[in-house]
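seq as requested:
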Amino acid sequence: MIIDPLTPTAPPFPAILGFIAVSLSWFIAQMAKVIRCWVRDRRFNFRWLFDTGGMPSSHTASVASLATVVGLYYGFVTIPFLIALIFAIITMFDAAGVRRSVGRQASILNKMMDDIDEKGQVAEERLKELLGHTPVEVLAGACLGIALAYLICGVAA
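struct tokens:
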């Protein structure tokens, strides 16, 4: 067995703090969206807790927090951190790129369906358009996740 000199022999903080940091990152990001929608619409919709899209990105907050926790726990020049970082980058790219493009396509298809429906030909269910995130929403999620991980785990270390 090869011992990595960069991996701590004694954990720098209890592992449960990592779970708390990642979970809290997701929860706070989702609650921020719920509060924004509640203030905007003056009503509460339970579905907002689990809806996709919006500011900040809860997916990004979670994976950024996870990568930061892994870096703080194992070190930032380790294979576990590299794995978490690549996972975070792919998730952020998907949130801002692929899912946003799918949302734009849904918008175009919905307009096409409206045009067809007006002519009385086909009535189909509308597609969900808010699927992805803008780069600003992804950046806000990343900042939230990293900050919470440092506050919860970095202070303990």
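The helical segments are 15-41, 58-74, 79-118, 135-154.
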